[in-house]
Amino acid sequence: MQDFLIVGGGVIGMMTALQLADAGHSVALVERGQCGREASWAGGGIVSPLYPWRYSKAISALSSWSEGRYPELAGRLLEETGIDPEYRQKGLLYLRVEDVDVALAWAREVAKPLNRIDADTLYAKEPNAAPGFDSALWMPTLGSIRNPRLGQALRARLLQMPGVGLHEQCEVSALIREGAAIRGVATSQGAIRAGQTVVCAGAWSQGLLASIGIELPVRPVKGQMILFKAPPGLVERVVLKDGRYVIPRGDGRVLAGSTLEEVGFDKQTTREARDSLHASALSIVPALAECPVEHHWAGLRPGSPDGVPMIGTVPTFEGLHVNAGHYRNGLVLAPAATRLLVDQLIGCEPIVDPSPYLPGSRLLGSDVSVR
């Protein structure tokens, strides 16, 4: 029997496994497909909420802690696996922000470098940005990471660790329940037992917990993105306008996203979304009109009612924990969200106050006492 079993091999699940293994525990990780190929792969990799001043303090506390950990994590994974997650700290330009005063007041309150720049400074930083803007907001500390490569590096590292068992292409059919305790999962590859079970299955977490009478308020929210094959240097920084963004990669490619669609578990791409994303990208960087769209895809975010993830022990069930509901900020919050849960699992002082994230009364069901 393993010390811990983790259901879900996205960035949240893999970082949880890595931290538990670093602490000397045996870990089994179960993934129905291949690790890192769902929402963790489909996102853009911006290491900040898009408009951080519009989020609650619960999100800000996790995102602030996480942001400073990505350079170290990327360097560690490159050294240990040879796979470069391509962390880039080039800053972010905000075009056409309606609540500038709110943004600047937030930045002063949290001591975050965010300032208004004039047109000359804007176009010096991003010469190919759409013309006609007389100012912008500039956040110099913002970074981005190439999330598919982050997933590859995390998976490679876990495969190297003797205390970690990776079970891919392994469908979970049920939680193993012994009275009021959960002791692992039944899967397509047989039963896998553990002292503690952690559900990190993103949008699919709701279905698994429903099997034991718990209603987890997490739903799939589809996001579509496109990728331009652009020459290196065409776009150097993340640029955000009207809720849409372009994200450059080290090889010149540029991502553009993203849609928000309430369509259940449908991951099909649509021509309408492609055209909308293409138009938004060109409104930010017109020169992208000369670049072919190389790829168009969709992923499913784990939406929650307020965007605040549920992190902690599931009430009334011994040995069952959850880390889900990160919505648009799974990658943003991952280092802090996983560390917060691991701290609780192994008895360390939590990095932040855990109370805003505890499942408690946010879970509903016949087997859960609402508190």
Protein described:
- By secondary structure, this protein is α/β, with parallel strands linked by helices.
- The protein is 29% helix and 26% strand.
- The protein contains 10 helices and 18 strands.
- Strands 1, 2, 6, 7, 8, 9, 16 and 17 form an 8-stranded mixed β-sheet that branches.
- Helix 3 packs across helix 10 and helix 4 crosses helix 7.
- The longest helix has 17 residues.
- The protein is globular.
Amino- and carboxy-terminal Cα gap: 33 Å
Overall pLDDT level: 95
* Radius of gyration from CA coordinates: 21 Å
What order do the SSEs take from the amino end to the carboxyl end, as H and E? EHEHHHEHEHEHEEEEHEEEEEHEEEHE
The tally of strands reads 18
Task: Please mark out the parts with pLDDT under 50 across 5 or more consecutive residues, or reply none.
Answer: 365-371
Summarize the structure.
The protein has 371 residues and is an alpha/beta fold.
Features:
371 residues; alpha/beta; globular
Helix-strand layout with pairing:
Blueprint: E1 2-7, H1 11-22, E2 27-30, H2 39-42, H3 57-67, H4 70-81, E3 92-95, H5 100-110, E4 115-118, H6 119-125, E5 135-139, H7 147-160, E6 164-167, E7 172-178, E8 181-187, E9 190-199, H8 205-210, E10 214-215, E11 219-228, E12 238-241, E13 244-248, E14 254-257, H9 271-284, E15 293-303, E16 310-313, E17 320-324, H10 330-346, E18 364-365
Parallel strand pairs: 1-2, 1-9, 2-6, 3-12, 9-17
Antiparallel strand pairs: 3-5, 4-5, 7-8, 8-9, 10-18, 11-14, 11-15, 12-13, 13-14, 16-17
